[in-house]
């Protein structure tokens, strides 16, 4: 990285010639994350509000481009790590949060369950133990007062406030369960998001799901008939996808759709556009696919 060149480019950012300013921005953008520290330092030193605004926009564009790149790599790499996908989405709004902090918070909850789990526990007993730790000890609950708040979709905020929407709570719950080798996976139910406890030894997909869990309602356990009734209320036919675990990519897409809905209601048009671009990154296969 040529620090002298970057310093010179930053000085040219407030050039009155729009063509020069645009060329300078493009050159700085090409450096990516490497220049953020210097751009932030320039912002702190500047007394010019117009230059500060240009620096802010430039920093955001670099960080947004990095989130898109990471998300595309995650998706095209197989989307194996659900927590990693959630952390990438989190970087969109909170680029400075250390991902390790999020991982450590998840590990703390997992450890608390692990210390109490017994080898011969039944599936129901394991879920009741996770429920006790997740809802009673750590105090997680559904955000019923401000359900549309975009903060409900960012994992760092949900871990801090212990409040979230259906999908964020289900995501954290399933990540903890899977790290304990407990087969709990997300189910992409319309207008709701639930979890399924799966018997992985069963070949027949119709028999694989032992029961369902509502992470938004303190880990309430229910059966297939309840899903039938819910779909009936929505006048929807009982499609297979509404009963079976979905992919990690589907979960991250749904988080992004929730964010789109939240930002639309708030009138944040720029964020709606950017979240749309993130969704596109999850729908565009790489050239090798």
UniProtKB/TrEMBL annotation:
Residues 101-257 form the Protein SirB1 N-terminal domain. Belongs to the UPF0162 family. Pfam families: Transglut_core2. InterPro entries: SirB1_N. It comes from the Bacteria. This is Protein SirB1 N-terminal domain-containing protein. PANTHER family: F-BOX ONLY PROTEIN 21 (PTHR31350:SF21), SI:DKEY-261L7.2 (PTHR31350). It comes from Arcticibacter tournemirensis.
């Amino acid at each position: 990285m040529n620090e002298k060149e970057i310093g010179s480019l930053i000085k040219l950012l407030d050039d009155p010639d729009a063509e020069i300013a645009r060329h300078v921005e493009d050159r700085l953008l090409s450096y990516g994350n490497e220049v953020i520290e210097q751009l932030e330092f320039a912002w702190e030193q500047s007394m010019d509000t117009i230059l500060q605004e240009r620096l802010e926009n430039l920093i955001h564009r670099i960080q947004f481009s990095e989130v898109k790149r990471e998300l595309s790599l995650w998706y095209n790499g197989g989307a194996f790590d659900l927590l990693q996908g959630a952390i990438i989405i989190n970087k969109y709004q909170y680029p400075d949060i250390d991902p390790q902090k999020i991982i450590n918070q998840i590990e703390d909850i997992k450890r608390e369950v692990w210390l109490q789990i017994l080898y011969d526990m039944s599936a129901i007993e394991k879920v009741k133990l996770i429920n006790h730790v997740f809802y009673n000890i750590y105090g997680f609950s559904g955000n019923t007062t401000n359900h549309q708040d975009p903060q409900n979709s960012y994992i760092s905020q949900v871990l801090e406030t212990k409040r979230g929407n259906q999908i964020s709570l289900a995501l954290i719950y399933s990540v903890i369960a899977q790290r304990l080798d407990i087969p709990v996976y997300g189910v992409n139910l319309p207008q709701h998001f639930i979890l399924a406890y799966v018997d992985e030894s069963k070949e027949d997909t119709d028999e694989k799901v032992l029961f369902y869990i509502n992470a938004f309602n303190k880990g309430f356990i229910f059966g297939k008939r309840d899903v039938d009734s819910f779909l009936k209320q929505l006048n929807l036919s009982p499609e297979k996808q509404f009963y079976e675990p979905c992919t990690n990519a589907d979960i991250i897409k749904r988080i992004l759709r929730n964010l789109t809905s939240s930002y639309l209601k708030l009138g944040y048009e720029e964020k709606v556009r950017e979240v749309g671009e993130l969704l596109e990154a999850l729908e565009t296969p790489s050239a090798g696919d």
